[in-house]
Amino acid sequence: xxxxxxxxxxxxxxxxxxxxxxxxxxxxxxxxxxxxxxxxxxxxxxxxxxxxxxxxxxxxxxxxxxxxxxxxxxxxxxxxxxxxxxxxxxxxxxxxxxxxxxxxxxxxxxxxxxxxxxxxxxxxxxxxxxxxxxxxxxxxxxxxxxxxxxxxxxxxxxxxxxxxxxxxxxxxxxxxxxxxxxxxxxxxxxxxxxxxxxxxxxxxxxxxxxxxxxxxxxxxxxxxxxxxxxxxxxxxxxxxxxxxxxxxxxxxxxxxxxxxxxxxxxxxxxxxxxxxxxxxxxxxxxxxxxxxxxxxxxxxxxxxxxxxxxxxxxxxxxxxxxxxxxxxxxxxxxxxxxxxxxxxxxxxxxxxxxxxxxxxxxxxxxxxxxxxxxxxxxxxxxxxxxxxxxxxxxxxxxxxxxxxxxxxxxxxxxxx
Length: 416
Fold this sequence. Notes:
Elements: H1 4-9, H2 11-30, H3 44-52, H4 63-75, H5 80-111, H6 113-122, H7 129-148, H8 150-155, H9 162-180, H10 185-190, H11 193-204, H12 210-227, H13 234-245, H14 250-255, H15 269-276, H16 293-326, H17 328-347, H18 358-380, H19 386-403, H20 405-411
Helix pairs in contact: 2-5, 2-7, 3-4, 4-5, 5-7, 5-9, 5-18, 7-18, 7-19, 7-20, 9-11, 9-12, 11-13, 12-17, 16-17, 16-18, 17-18, 18-19, 19-20
């Protein structure tokens, strides 16, 4: 594997680092100085208190969030809630960078850019600056779309669990896809990425359960197809998953200390099961009354348009089509996750359930990356002379940036 220094010398490593720096700076700058109810962050006071006092928050207890929050409490300054907002800013920015890296993996696979670059290097043909940068543009555009989407931005600046959830979503996706799409069977056989993905899945389930809706279709497709050729260390992966889920041991230990925030008293078996099962909120799932179903569906449609804008939606459909043409199983897994997350968010009966759409927005950003890359690859492969080709690529990128992420920034500037 590449060292960090080698990675950041490459265009994709530098792009990922720049994306992280840009969005962490923006999110941290706009983070509230303390407790806030903005952007659906009604739990910010409870979460900040639970982190501060080693408490147990409302079901399912959020042990992973509390333990990560303790780390950020130690390494940052200011009001306890502001420190948690900075944690959201950090993991939100990491999720944007990982979205770029996942988009790049998918674009390399769909459009064979890795093979083209390797063939160019083998033939010792000098790459122009344009040909070197074009493979990075679509994925970067998808990441920018995510970073500026109103729902994602809103959760990346407040003390809530959803930016951390986005980190787990993108990290697990990158681990699984970078392993599965590795063209070297020997390297893939030695890789510990499935083990690490299993561990992060278990750990992430200690933060938010919607992680499972996203991960399971992708993991089933990737791991089932890999298992047909053998070589998967299922026992190791089960151990990694169990190790991650062991974060729930925190709940009975913390509850036994009788902290100020102590929902359900998880020091008892019945209290622990009440916590981890999300007992008080089970009736919220598909709890929307039939009289407002139409309103909820219309609201879902509006929010999806608001995240991607009209041009982004068209690019997303184009990218989903190209991914389907490349690998129907993989495309089907992402579509299934997108639909399941949309249904869960739409029919979960709380006013802020729209935040459950964030993993679906991440999938949409991958589709947009592939759609934008499809357009840019066609321009780069056209018969135009160098100057016209460069002007066309630059003009296309500028127009797309103006019509999708920057338009989101302009339209929703009052909400950021």
